[in-house]
């Protein structure tokens, strides 16, 4: 009970910080008569959000799907590749340089090429979201699998565990904290990837809406789309954190 | 049968009294070399021969790095490439034996498993998990005084409690032979003394044979029927000491003249005292 109360108190600090920023922002735009095009005030943005609520909601849906599909694909391909890299020296030597090379290419630069390959629809955004989310998942999972305490593996061997039992009962759960750490980074990157894709070429999504509103000098709407985008990123991050708490209940309540 | 075995090779310190018991572990001319990365081999164990009799608690006592843990891991089937004979119940050891339990220096508990799930892990790996295994685990946890901690996670327990869970895990499949590698080395003095009495109690109740690696002279003497003293690397047997102190041993045992004399003999074998 006291813990819950403490959590509430802890939540007050960031809320207080945000409130201060909003008040200063509002006062600045009101007192100095800043143009709505240059910097809309928080109340302008709120007004645009209320007015365009259904539009924003409609445009959020494709962006959300792009992020989730891209992230899910990154998990589905990234974890098996990490397992291969962590368990085979040969595969590690072959794949690691390629992974690092693909990672060092700026995703904004490949986005137009991907658009040519996959077209203007959801597939190209999904591909870019996947590309940016993939790397942290592979690297963190491989690190986690390699960081399995040798004592636990030796214990499993002393119990005559088969290689698949060693993997499922020891290595994989030992790597879970790393997989979740990578996923938290990856899911926020997936949002960035999806928006990059929409910027380069699309006809729907929050990134597309932001670009359109901007070109019409409708700054309040552009900012409203931005607020929704960050809410989307935070929401996805929170879902990963909740999944972490569900799948790793042991991580809490230590000394 | 054991008698005949012993007579023919005559391992150091063999005694008439022990010969009435069946042999569970037979070790003859055990030798272990490791290939180092530099190319020249490292001789860890030169020659170890002795018999392990059923129901005995035998300590392997020696300085750090002398090869006693290596020897234990050979018996456990975890270290390969030895020469000589290592048999458990007459069968050569090439892989971990199903009738053996191993307690490591570290508790090695799975942090993601609750206490009860850690204890039943060996049964799960053997595909023998079920209500019977769980009942056995409960029984063992009660025996070591951890009743009520079944659903706790390891990070909620103290070091001594974790090692007690590890002990239960090693015992859950009712092994004939318990191998222990300095299991209490990381614990504080008072906890360690508690664990000594707990181990002796468990041995009494389960009848398991124990091979116990330690570098503590008093621990070896207090617990054991026989103390096998290892020399510096490469290991040979420096002395084979029968501890003829009556069980049950109590904390008072540690202060008897006989106890001190046995400690002194062990320390002479280790080259600490003259």
CATH superfamily of the largest domain in chain B: P-loop containing nucleotide triphosphate hydrolases
Molecular shape of chain B: globular
Total number of helices of chain A: 10
In percent terms, what proportion of residues of chain A is strand? under 5%
Low-confidence stretches of chain A: none
Tertiary shape of chain A: globular
- What order do the helices and strands of chain A follow? HHHHHHHHHH
List the defining traits of the structure above.
heterodimer; A: 255 residues; mainly alpha; 10 helices; 84% helix; 0% strand; B: 274 residues; alpha/beta; Rossmann fold; 2 domains; ten-stranded mixed β-sheet
Kindly describe this structure:
The complex is a heterodimer of chains A (255) and B (274). Chain A is an all-alpha fold and 255 residues long. Chain A has 2 domains: 1-34; 37-251, MetI-like fold, CATH 1.10.3720. Chain A has 10 helices and no strands. In chain A, 36% of the residues are buried. Chain B has 274 residues and is an alpha/beta fold. Chain B starts with a helix and ends in a 5-residue tail after the last helix. Chain B has helices at 2-9, 68-75, 115-119, 121-125, 131-143, 159-171, 189-206, 217-223, 257-269, and strands spanning 23-35, 41-53, 57-61, 83-88, 91-92, 100-103, 177-181, 209-214, 226-230, 235-242. A 10-stranded mixed β-sheet of chain B has the order 5-4-1-2-10-9-3-8-7-6, sandwiched between helices. Chain A binds chain B through residues 149, 151-152, 154-161, 165, 169-170, 173-174, 176, 248-250, 253-255, and chain B through 76-78, 95-96, 98, 100, 102, 104, 106, 108, 110-113, 121-122, 124-126, 153-156.
């Amino acid at each position: 009970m006291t813990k819950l109360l403490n959590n509430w108190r802890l939540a007050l600090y960031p809320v207080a910080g945000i409130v201060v920023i909003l008040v200063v922002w509002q006062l600045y735009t009101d007192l100095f008569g800043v143009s709505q095009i240059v910097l809309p005030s928080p109340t302008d943005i709120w007004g645009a959000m209320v007015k365009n609520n259904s539009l924003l909601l409609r445009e959020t849906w494709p962006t959300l799907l792009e992020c989730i599909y891209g992230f899910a694909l990154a998990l589905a391909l990234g974890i098996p590749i990490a397992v291969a890299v962590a368990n085979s020296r040969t595969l590690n030597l072959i794949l690691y340089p390629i992974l690092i090379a693909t990672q060092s290419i700026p995703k904004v630069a490949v986005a137009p090429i991907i658009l040519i390959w996959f077209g203007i629809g959801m597939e190209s955004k999904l591909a870019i979201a996947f590309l940016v989310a993939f790397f942290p998942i592979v690297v963190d999972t491989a690190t986690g699998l390699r960081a399995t305490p040798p004592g636990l593996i030796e214990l499993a061997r002393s119990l005559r565990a088969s290689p698949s039992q060693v993997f499922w009962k020891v290595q994989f759960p030992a790597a879970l904290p790393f997989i979740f750490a990578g996923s938290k980074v990856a899911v926020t990157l997936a949002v960035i990837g999806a928006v990059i894709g929409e910027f380069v070429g699309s006809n729907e999504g929050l990134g597309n809406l932001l670009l359109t509103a901007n070109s019409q000098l409708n700054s309040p709407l552009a900012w409203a789309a931005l607020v929704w985008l960050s809410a989307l990123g935070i929401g996805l991050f929170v879902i990963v954190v909740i999944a972490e708490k569900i799948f790793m209940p042991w991580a809490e309540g230590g000394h | 049968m054991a008698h005949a075995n012993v007579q023919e090779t005559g391992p150091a310190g063999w005694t008439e009294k022990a010969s009435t018991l069946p042999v569970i572990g037979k070790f003859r001319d055990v030798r272990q070399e490791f290939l180092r990365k530099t190319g020249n081999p490292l001789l860890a164990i030169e020659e170890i021969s002795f018999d392990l009799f059923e129901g005995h608690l035998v300590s392997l006592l020696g300085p750090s790095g002398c090869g006693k843990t290596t020897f234990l891991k050979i018996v456990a089937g975890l270290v390969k490439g030895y020469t000589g004979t290592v048999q458990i119940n007459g069968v050569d050891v090439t892989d971990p034996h199903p009738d053996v339990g191993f307690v490591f220096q570290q508790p090695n508990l799975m942090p993601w498993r609750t206490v009860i799930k850690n204890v039943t892990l060996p049964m799960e790996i053997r595909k023998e998990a079920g209500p019977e295994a769980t009942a056995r685990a409960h029984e063992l946890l009660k025996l070591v005084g951890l009743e009520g901690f079944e659903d706790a996670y390891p990070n909620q327990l103290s070091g001594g409690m974790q090692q007690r869970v590890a002990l239960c895990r090693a015992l859950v499949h009712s092994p004939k032979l318990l191998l222990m590698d300095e299991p209490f080395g990381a614990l504080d003095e008072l906890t360690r003394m508690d664990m000594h009495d707990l181990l002796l109690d468990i041995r009494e109740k389960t009848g398991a044979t124990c091979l116990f690696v330690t570098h503590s002279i008093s621990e070896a003497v207090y617990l054991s029927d026989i103390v096998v003293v290892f020399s510096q690397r490469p290991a040979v047997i420096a002395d084979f000491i029968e501890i003829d102190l009556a069980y049950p041993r109590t904390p008072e045992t540690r202060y008897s003249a006989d106890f001190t004399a046995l400690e002194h003999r062990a320390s002479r074998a280790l080259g600490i005292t003259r």
